[in-house]
Every structure is written in structure tokens, then in C-alpha cells.
Design goal:
The protein has 441 residues and is an alpha+beta fold. Helices cover 26% and strands 20% of the residues. It contains eleven helices and 19 strands.
Length: 441
């Protein structure tokens, strides 16, 4: 936990070697950062992608996410789905929660992402942590990185913060708040679980909190609440691309802050402590799981919500419900519900809406949501963009974040090429590029 009194060590001044000077520097190789790096590279920009873990894909790969939750149309997302398909003939659809095409083969996806980055001419640097921004006034001109190679500097004409939490944007002084507007509470964290030894011919998948099936004289969701320790207790079961295997979204850590290392450590321990009771419940009570075993846990915990930056524009829940088309649209035909996981325990929060979400036309996200106030030279991509807590519960999902990255990557390349700040980029030029990729409002 953070101490009330902080002692300081004065670090001696020392020269920092410059690793590279690039057109576009992207921080974070999750879906948003991957999309930004590939798209900027395809524009002809010199791009460096920095990722603190040892794998690209973020929650989609290291986080073992079951499927591409949510949907958007046009451009990079659909290309990535096409290239990472494999054999889907035996996989079920998930109804309103997705189709067989969206189920993730984690190892295949890692390979495809690396191929696409290489094809786009992107330089990738894994196992590297971005630790501090380099500022000239209010403009971010570079980043200090730390790795096995030591402390180094990277300078860039335009920087994309796709770190999920917006770490460099925050360190640079961009305004933000955390979590829900009125109390700062944030959505829970989760370890996804890959479970083998499952008789999938007997399994009934449970893709949503409002889904269940009979179990004895009760139902599976109610029985799980009785047995699995709080704050876990809900049942979410998804198909896998591997035979005899399913993916579970059933661990739960509440009242934790993904920008705090102590909280991340505690959340990891809490989620892992729930694995045994979850598997015992499934083996003893749920058909098809009688001989199941834990096959894999993620190398990165799933963090749903931390910082919401204040941008030139802010997306709110009314914009989503009204399917608003902004003049400065940059992401289009985004579709998902208000997926608010319970901030106080298991299941869907009282503010969340899944099966009963009626707006199916999709919505747009304006370019202004990616441009933080007060700080220049930097664009945001992913779940930390400028939006309300409720709007975030919809746009935070991976397909939408991937197409955010697509737009932001193109914008970053245009800014670097023209020598303009992101807030001064003519949005019509970005939209023209997006339309050439099949992105339409």
C-alpha cells in the first residue's frame, strides 16, 4: 500500500543513451497498441512498438481471453480475424456474446500478430518498460525505457500511449480520473482459466451473467454463489479452439487499483486462491467437468478499468444509446452492451446491461477522445481514452480497442509526416484514409 510519508533517494545525474529516433512510438502491444503500430507502419512511418511483457496481444494472448468480445466493422479487426481462424467447424456460436469466428486460438494469434507487425515494418521491443516521459514544455518528445539492456531513451515525432492505464500520459501531466465518477470504484480484475479434461459433448456453455441452466432443483449460477468463495461466485464458461478444453471467466478480485503494484499483486493472489474451489465445484456439480484439470493460467491478470483521461471530447453513455455519429468520427460501427462487472462482488453490476441491451446499430467514437487535454505530441488508444465509466464499459472490449488503434496509428503517422500536433490534425484526412480501408460511419 502507498505510505503516507515517503522517503526519497536522490538519483545521481547520468547520461542516458538514445536507443532510437522514430516517427511513431507505440507503448503497449495489446490489441490497441498492435493496431496502432501496424497501421502506422502501413502508412510508411518508422515505428517502434514497446511492450513490457514477452508477448504481443495483451489480454487477447497473455491474458487468455476466450473470445473477441463485442464487435466492430471495417479494417484491421476483420483482417486479424480472417488471418487467425484455423479450423472453426466444431465451435459453437455464443449468441449475443459472439460467434465461432471470434473464439481465440491464443498461440496462433501470437504468430499472426508477429507476422503482421513484421510485414508492416514495425520494430518490436519486448521485455521493456516505459518508465518516464521526456517533455519539452507540454509536449512529449520521447520516453525513458528500462530493460535488460539498461536505461535508454527513445525520441519520436508522435507517441501513442496504448498501455491500458495510460502510464506515460499520466506521468506527463494529462488530466484524468479513475473509475466511477462519483466514488472512484473500478471494475474487478480477473484471471482467465484454461481447463482441460472436459467432456465438451456434455458441457452447457454460459457466455453471460444473465445465462444459466438447471442444476438439481436450482440453477448453476445460484449454486455457484453458495459454494465458490466471495467475491467470486458467478459462472462463465466459453468454448476453446482446443479439443476437450474450455475457458473460464470465473475468478474475481474487487476493490483493487490496476495502477498500484501492491494491488496487482494482491489481485493475482486472490484470483489464484479461487481456482481450487472453482474446479471443485465444476467437478462435483456440473456435467462434463467430472475429470477436468487446470491446463493454463494467464501470465497477465485482466485489468478492466483504471484511468479515464480527459480529452478534447468525452464519449458518454447517451452517445452510445443514441448511436451518435460524430463529425470527427474515428471509430465506427462499434457494438457492445454496458458490460459492468459487479464492483462489490460476483456477477453483473446493477448498472450493467447485457442481454437486455437494445441498441444494435453501433456507435462512433470521435477523434477528440484520443487527444488528451493539456499535453501535446501524444495520442491515447484503448480503454483509457476519454469517456465516462458507463461508456467505458462498452468501448473497453478488444475489437473496439483494436480499431481505436487502427485510427490512432494512422493519425500518428499523418502527424509525423506533416509535422503537426495531434490536436491540429485535419480529421478529414484521417477519415479519408479510414474509408479506403472500408471504415464507414
Amino acid at each position: 500500500m502507498e505510505n503516507a510519508t515517503v522517503a526519497f533517494y536522490q538519483e545521481p545525474a547520468r547520461p542516458v543513451p538514445i536507443l532510437s529516433e522514430v516517427d511513431v512510438l507505440v507503448l503497449g502491444a495489446g490489441p490497441a497498441g498492435f493496431g496502432a503500430a501496424v497501421s502506422a507502419g502501413r502508412q510508411g512511418a518508422k515505428v517502434l512498438l514497446v511492450e513490457q511483457s514477452g508477448v504481443v496481444g495483451g489480454v487477447a494472448t497473455a491474458g487468455l481471453m476466450s473470445h473477441w468480445t463485442g464487435e466492430t466493422r471495417g479494417g484491421l479487426y476483420e483482417e486479424l480475424l480472417d488471418r487467425s481462424q484455423g479450423d472453426r467447424a466444431s465451435l459453437p456460436d455464443l449468441g449475443i456474446h459472439g460467434n465461432a469466428r471470434q473464439i481465440i486460438n491464443h498461440e496462433l494469434l501470437k504468430l499472426v500478430m508477429l507476422e503482421m507487425l513484421a510485414e508492416a515494418g514495425v520494430t518490436l521491443r519486448l521485455y521493456t518498460f516505459a518508465s518516464a516521459p521526456i517533455l519539452e514544455g507540454n509536449r512529449v518528445t520521447g520516453v525513458i525505457i528500462e530493460s535488460k539492456s539498461g536505461r535508454q531513451a527513445i525520441f519520436a515525432k508522435t507517441i501513442v500511449d496504448a498501455s491500458g492505464d495510460g502510464d506515460m500520459a499520466a506521468a506527463a501531466g494529462a488530466p484524468y480520473y479513475k473509475g466511477r465518477e462519483y466514488d472512484g470504484k473500478m471494475q474487478p480484475m480477473t484471471h482467465m482459466l484454461k481447463v482441460g479434461g472436459v467432456d465438451t459433448s456434455k458441457v452447457r456453455y454460459v457466455p453471460g451473467f444473465e445465462d444459466t441452466f438447471p442444476l438439481g432443483d436450482s440453477d448453476v449460477q445460484s449454486e455457484a454463489r453458495k459454494v465458490i468463495p466471495y467475491p467470486a461466485g458467478h459462472v462463465l464458461i466459453y468454448p476453446s479452439t482446443l479439443p476437450g478444453t474450455v475457458v473460464l471467466n470465473m475468478t474475481n478480485a474487487i476493490k483493487v487499483d490496476g495502477t498500484n503494484a501492491d494491488d496487482l499483486t494482491r489481485a493475482d493472489a486472490v484470483c489464484r486462491s479461487q481456482i481450487g474451489p472453482i474446479l471443485n465445484f465444476l467437478r462435483s456439480r456440473v456435467p462434463g467437468f467430472e475429470a477436468c484439470y487446470l491446463l493454463q493460467t494467464p501470465s497477465a491478470i485482466g485489468v478492466r478499468e483504471t484511468r479515464h483521461f480527459v480529452g478534447e471530447k468525452t464519449l458518454n453513455e447517451r452517445d452510445i444509446l443514441e448511436a451518435k455519429v460524430f463529425d470527427d468520427w474515428a471509430v465506427t460501427r462499434a457494438r457492445f452492451n454496458f458490460d459492468v462487472h459487479n464492483l462489490e462482488g460476483a456477477g453483473l453490476d446493477e448498472t450493467g446491461v447485457q442481454r437486455h441491451f437494445r441498441q444494435q446499430r453501433g456507435y462512433t467514437i470521435p477523434y477528440g477522445c484520443f487527444v488528451p487535454q493539456k499535453i501535446d505530441g501524444l495520442l491515447l488508444a484503448g480503454r483509457c481514452i476519454s469517456g465516462t465509466h458507463m461508456a467505458h464499459s462498452s468501448y473497453r472490449v478488444m475489437p473496439i480497442c483494436l480499431n481505436m488503434g487502427q485510427s490512432v496509428g494512422i493519425a500518428a503517422a499523418l502527424c509525423a509526416r506533416q509535422g503537426v500536433l495531434p490536436r491540429n490534425l485535419p480529421v478529414g484526412e484521417l477519415q479519408q484514409q479510414l474509408r479506403s480501408l472500408g471504415v464507414e460511419p
